[in-house]
Amino acid sequence: MAARLFKVSEREGALAYAYAKSGKTAEARELLATFLRESKSSYVTWYGISFFYVGLGDKDEAFACLEKAYAQHDSRLRDVKQEPMLESLHSDPRFPRLVQRVGL
Fold first, then answer.
1. Which of 3, 15, 49, 81 is at 20 to 30 A from 34, Cα to Cα?
2. Segment 49-69, tens digit of pLDDT
3. What contacts 24+ positions apart, CB below 8 Å, involve 55-60?
4. What is the separation, in whole angstroms, between the first and last Cα of the chain?
5. How far apart are CA 63 and CA 49, in angstroms?
6. pTM
7. Which sequence spans correspond to the domains of the chain?
């Protein structure tokens, strides 16, 4: 059986981000678990999944997702500096290095 295309949209990432920021971390973690299960057999965009981790306050995992997005040549990384949900990452020393590697 071929793996089906499964892409985490920014809308889904934003929903999980909103859940986490509003204190509904169980709902955010449930959505995250679903997408991580799917990532084992399908293509996912790690850029969208990074929103989950930012909302949950896990910068290390958010950066790990952004690194995976970079490895996938995800075109959404062009918005990494302007994306409001990623703003809390800007002060981290890893952020300017990522931005530089992306070419922004």
1. 81
2. 899 899 999 999 999 999 999
3. 55/16, 55/17, 55/18, 55/19, 55/20, 55/21, 55/28, 55/85, 56/20, 56/25, 56/28, 56/29, 56/32, 57/20, 59/88, 59/89, 59/92
4. 40
5. 10
6. 0.80
7. 10-102
Q: Could you give the CA distance from residue 84 to residue 79 in angstroms, rounded to a whole number?
A: 10
Count Cβ atoms below 10 Å from residue 43 Cβ, excluding itself.
Answer: 13
List the structure tokens of 19. 């859940």
Residues 12, 30: Cα–Cα separation, whole Å: 12
Rounded Cα gap, residues 54 and 20, in angstroms: 9
